[in-house]
Design a protein that fits this description.
- It is found in: Cytoplasm.
- One of its GO terms (cellular component) is cytoplasm.
- Belongs to the TRAFAC class OBG-HflX-like GTPase superfamily. OBG GTPase family.
- GO terms for molecular function: GTP binding; GTPase activity; magnesium ion binding.
- The protein is α/β, with parallel strands linked by helices.
- Helix content is about 30%, strand content about 20%.
- It contains 11 helices and 18 strands.
- The strands form 4 sheets. Strands 10-11-9-12-13-14 form a 6-stranded mixed sheet, with helices on both faces.
- Helix 6 links the parallel strand 13 and strand 14.
Length: about 500
């Protein structure tokens, strides 16, 4: 049965925003008193909270699908919809949040840190909020946008002050059980520990945490054994304790060779940018199992070589508790100095949030298609506006066209080479596809004029008095000619009838 999980994939769906309402206020003797449709409620967010009381991701391993509440619809009489209920997910301190591709999004190392991993959708505006002096009674409302939906990866990296590293069966679990109240599984076979164990140690006035990292073997940094699964739990530790087995019966092994193998694996493990490499952190050596006579002799033999390399060496026994007190006080001094250095360190640089006015709100990509180029519009605003549009309402579609024009989409389409009838797609993937018909405006590309002429060069389009007089005389002359032709036709028709009457009398 799984009892410890430090890596899981969550399938999240934030709440959808509620639709706005189309409503008209009705009063006695005043049937059309203006729009009063309310706004839709925002969808609920999904928030990750670093909780010190949580130590594993086991609950998310069993139920990885999580969803927040949807926003309510707007209603008449200016009643807004209820906001969707947000979902808070407690995670252990030290959890790293990554996207589906493995790119880090947040590192929750401070208790109480909150990170909105899946923002909810926006509620749509009702027709009351869309009214303005030019559009006094909108016959449409905006739809709510869908919330964020996708996968995120949670990876737990144990937050501890000291890490115990060493070969399998070196006595790390016995050591943490002897110096703290932790009760890890202890047995006489390798890889007994299958997940990190945490213990709290009190050394004088200093209290610190110790992590028992599962046994490492040669090639752990390349994925052999359980190395890659649990080496990341060493990243956050202030100091390292090399627990060396002085009573091993395996041929070809001794404390010095074991130390070199572990050091090589720690050196090959890459730590995140900005962190101190593992081998540059304070390191102590604990020669374990000195309660065995042969192990005591071996510890006395290798102690000098280890001290010559610059290590502080402690001969310990987890059975008789020999040497444990000096070891814990030495670790307490290291942790206390590190905490004092952190407290005296200068505050981090202030984060300056600059306005995004200079950045483009969208981009246009030209993609080849079977019947010509396809112009794809990408950007948060155009995509969100399309999601908010009810395409069954012509007024709402016209409002979308006005918004895109004000954003400068038509000008960019001209620059990209689009012409009337070109295929335009808004959004990634299938998106919204339509044939582009540019709106008539004062743009030079839309001006109709004879070939080789430009009406913008006519600096005085108003006619002069002589031109108006000449035009008047032309109209008068045309009218006189028309009257003369009509008179001639009338006289011609009348003469023919008179001659016919004379013939009949004859």
């Amino acid at each position: 049965m799984v009892t410890f999980v430090d890596r899981v994939t969550l399938h999240l769906r934030a709440g959808k925003g509620g639709n706005g309402c189309v409503s008209v206020r009705r009063e006695k003797f005043k049937p059309l008193a203006g729009p009063d449709g309310g706004n839709g409620g925002h969808g609920g967010d999904i928030v990750l909270v670093a909780d010190p009381q949580v130590t594993t991701l086991l609950s998310y391993h069993h139920s990885p699908h999580r969803a927040a509440g949807n926003g309510g619809f707007g209603m008449g009489d200016n009643r807004s919809g209820a906001a969707g209920e947000s979902l808070e997910l407690p995670v252990p301190v030290g959890t790293v949040v990554k996207d589906a591709e493995g790119e880090p999004l947040a590192d929750l190392i401070v208790p109480g840190t909150r990170f909105v991993v899946a923002p909810g959708g926006q509620g749509g505006l009702g027709n009351a909020a869309l009214a303005n002096p030019k559009r006094k009674a909108p016959g449409f409302a905006l739809l709510g946008t869908p919330g964020w939906e996708g996968d995120v990866q949670l990876e737990l990296k144990t937050v501890a002050d000291v890490a115990l590293v060493g070969f399998p069966s070196a006595g790390k679990s016995s050591l943490i059980a002897a110096i703290s109240a932790a009760r890890p599984k202890i047995a006489d076979y390798p890889f007994t520990t299958l997940h990190p164990n945490l213990g709290v140690v009190q050394a004088g006035e200093t209290r610190f945490t110790v992590a028992d990292v599962p046994g490492l073997i040669e090639g752990a940094s390349e994925g052999k054994g359980l190395g890659l699964e649990f080496l990341r739990h060493v990243e956050r530790c202030t100091a390292l304790v090399h627990v060396l087995d002085c009573a091993t019966l395996e041929p070809g092994r001794d404390p010095l060779s074991d130390l070199e193998v572990i050091r090589e694996e720690l050196a090959n493990y890459p730590v995140p940018e900005g962190q101190v490499p593992l081998l540059e952190r304070p390191q102590l050596v604990a020669l374990n199992k000195v309660d065995v006579p042969e192990a005591k002799d071996l510890a006395d033999l290798v102690r000098g070589d280890l001290e010559d390399r610059g290590y502080r060496v402690f001969e310990i026994s987890t059975v008789s508790h020999e040497g444990l007190r000096p070891l814990t006080f030495a670790l307490g001094d290291i942790v206390a100095r590190h905490r004092a250095e952190q407290a005296a360190a200068p505050a981090p640089e202030r984060v300056v949030i600059r306005p995004r006015g200079a950045e483009r709100d969208f981009e246009i990509r030209v993609e080849g298609g079977t019947y010509g180029n396809v112009y794809r519009i990408l950007g948060d605003k155009p995509v969100r506006w399309v999601q908010q549009t009810d395409f069954q309402n012509e007024e709402a579609v016209g409002f979308l066209a006005d918004r895109l024009e004000k954003l400068g989409v038509e000008d960019e389409l001209y620059r990209a080479g689009a012409v009337a009838g070109s295929t335009v797609v808004i959004g990634p993937g299938d998106g919204i596809v339509f044939d582009w018909h540019p709106s008539l405006s004062s743009a030079a590309e839309l001006m109709t004029a004879p070939r080789g002429t430009d009406p913008r060069l006519d600096l005085n389009p108003r006619r002069t008095t002589s031109q108006r007089r000449e035009r008047y005389h032309e109209r008068m002359d045309a009218k006189a000619e028309a009257r003369a032709e009509l008179e001639a036709e009338r006289l011609g028709a009348g003469g023919a009838g008179y001659e016919l009457e004379d013939d009949e009398e004859t």
